[in-house]
User: What shape does this take?
Amino acid sequence: MHKILPNLNIEKSYKNTTKGYICGIDEVGRGCLAGPVVSAAVILNFDKIPDGINDSKKISKIKRSIISNNIKKYALDIGIGEASSQEIDEFNILNASLLAMKRAFESLKKHTGLALIDGIYSPNINCKTINIIKGDTKSLSIAAASIIAKEYRDAFMNKLGLIYPKYNFKNNVGYGTKEHYKIIRSDGITSYHRKTFKLLK
Assistant: This one.
């Protein structure tokens, strides 16, 4: 039995009734102990879709990097937005995620008439929104956004790992691995850790 991959069926069903472009929006890093939550908004060129676009969690690092570069090459527009660990602590992770989505959308240059949003909550943006549960497994635009956001955030955490090498951000990208919890217990936290999250285990 073939697995159904994300496709353009949802986008094409709204294409003729939408004034402006259609973008997909997704975020990564909600469950991390450290680092920002990052969102991407992507407007794909329906005539030039890179091969291999899928939910970023289902693609290997090497493939994801290649696909990300191809999305950047062929997409009509890409926006990135993030909310810092301080904003996550101040507003909570849900509101910070929506803030990152809003910032990603607002950094798009092309006029967008419809935003397809992964999940059940939508950011407050000047555009019609449609929520799609597990959207990164259904919509190519959302899946592309998940890849762009993941690559951007991983690169950020890799750079952070050079500043704080003992936390091994290059490998855990801020998630709560056993090693990460152990380092927090022995060495405390950085300014990039989310103080409202359960940091001791």
About this structure: The longest strand covers residues 21-28. The mean pLDDT is 96. Helices lie at 9-15, 61-74, 85-91, 93-106, 140-163, 169-172, 178-187.
